[in-house]
Specification:
Elements lengths: L1 H21 L16 E4 L7 E4 L4 E2 L5 E2 L5 H4 L9 E3 L6 E3 L17 H4 L9 E4 L6 E4 L4 E2 L5 E2 L18 E5 L2 E5 L4 E2 L5 E3 L17 E2 L10
Length: about 230
């Protein structure tokens, strides 16, 4: 009977040792004693197997001791510049800056876009357009120029200089800023003066105005020229 008990105890001990060998090690921070919002950090050199990393307001082995820290916002009322708000949350000094100001003390003034300050390099009547970030820009060139800063003139042909004017029905061709347009007589309209304007009180027979252009007449809007 005695030998059976001893054998059983030895068997239990052996099984326990085997289970301890295969069981994954327990994380040292699983049951830590760190307080006051501190962080547990594993440390093999510490007898506990971990250390407590305290916030700025607390100290001690388990971060349970409140530090006697003076609020610099009260001591120095001018710590934050340019109207910045002095903040000392969690014993960490910082400045909440007004819009546009940056820096640890709000000492950096807002950056002005070159389009607003006039310090851009857009030329020849180009429009300065701020980028999405607001610190850079690009140049929107007119029809006559191209390039990053609109310095290079485009080789644009003038259609008004030829004998075959693009304007119909006596329209005057105009070529301003490298783009042509037609100045139409009173009886015609359209970007090329291609449409006739019918008098309001006159019945107009289709195709009598111009055999090559459809007349915009309310009398017969579906008429076709033959």
């Amino acid at each position: 009977m005695y030998l059976r008990i001893v054998f059983s105890l030895l068997t239990i001990g052996t099984v326990g040792a085997v289970l301890d060998a295969v069981r994954p090690p327990q994380h040292p921070c699983l049951y830590n004693l760190c307080e006051a919002g501190s962080s547990c950090v594993p440390d093999n050199t510490d007898p506990k197997g971990y250390i407590c990393r305290c916030t700025n307001c607390y100290g001690g082995e388990f971060c349970s001791l409140l530090k006697l820290v003076s609020n610099p916002c009260w001591v120095d009322g001018n710590h934050c510049l340019n109207g910045g708000y002095c903040d000392f949350t969690d014993c960490t000094l910082s400045c909440v800056c007004p819009s546009g100001f940056t820096g640890d003390k709000c000492q950096n003034e807002p950056l002005v876009n070159p389009c607003d300050s006039g310090e851009h390099q857009c030329q020849n009547g180009a429009t300065c357009v701020p980028d999405k970030v607001g610190l850079g820009y690009f140049c929107q060139c007119t029809n006559c120029y191209e390039g990053k800063f609109c310095k290079s003139a485009k080789p644009v042909a003038n259609p008004c200089s030829s004998d075959n004017s693009p304007c119909y029905n006596g329209g005057v061709c105009d070529f301003t800023n490298c783009a042509f347009s037609c100045r139409c007589p009173l009886d015609f309209t359209g970007n090329l003066c291609q449409y006739a304007i019918c008098p309001k009180d006159v019945e107009v027979v289709p195709c009598l105005i111009d055999p090559c252009v459809l007349a915009m007449c309310s009398a017969n809007p579906n008429a076709q020229c033959r």
